Amino acid sequence: MLTTQTTAFATAVAPHLFWIISRAAGIAALVLASFSVCLGLLMSQRTVKGHRLDLRVAHEALSLATLVALIVHGLTLIGDGYLHPSLGDVAVPFLSSYKTIWTSVGIIAFWVLAVLGISYYARGWIGVRRWRKLHRFTALAWLMGIGHALGEGTDAGQAWFLAMTAIVVLPPLVLLLKAHCGSAGRAGTHAIEPAVLRTVTTRME
């Protein structure tokens, strides 16, 4: 009985195996990327004190794991018997005819994450300050990835997927908004300081 059920399950799953693997890898990439962005924002805002080196190692590991999951997500689709995409379809933006916009958003997000992730090992050549400015685009690529998942993902309309996405996305999103508001506040302060200084100087004269 068990053998018969196993055989029936394998027969039902086999035609969709590549799609199932791609789907699972995409979900894993979303979770891993969200954790990575959250950890990166915590370190940049110095919210977590101490053990900075350990956090950096964890952030690096999560970033690399995200890239691996994204590669699996894209390449396994080539074996899907329904879509039959080519390597170009999963690697070049605007080439695929299947939900072109959302597919392209996901592809662009992957390449941005890949380039920025690899650039970490070339930051000495790029320059640490310049690399940090470029690294901020990681958050944009992450947001694009969320858009891709919600706009094209098979599970996008499922309650469990929306709940899971909210759980992993909201914390880094709050930190990102906090960082943006903090940067805007500091920029405003720097802009006001010269005007205040001029006013004080005029009154002293």
Please, could you describe this protein's structure?
With 205 residues, the chain is mostly helical. The chain has one domain. It has helices spanning 2-13, 17-44, 52-75, 87-91, 100-119, 123-126, 128-135, 137-152, 159-204. Helix 2 runs antiparallel to helix 3, helix 2 runs parallel beside helix 9 and helix 5 (100-119) runs antiparallel to helix 8 (137-152). The protein starts with a helix and ends with a helix.
Question: Which tags fit this structure?
Answer:
disordered C terminus, globular, 205 residues, mainly alpha, single chain
Please render the helix and strand layout as text:
Layout: H1 2-13, H2 17-44, H3 52-75, H4 87-91, H5 100-119, H6 123-126, H7 128-135, H8 137-152, H9 159-204
Give the helix/strand class.
mainly alpha
Low-confidence stretches are 5-12, 188-205
The pLDDT mean sits at: 82
Question: Mind telling me the C-alpha Rg?
Answer: 22 Å
Helix content: over 70%
Element order, helices and strands? Answer: HHHHHHHHH
Task: Offer a concise description of the structure.
The protein is built from nine helices and no strands. The chain has 205 residues and is mainly α. The protein has one domain.
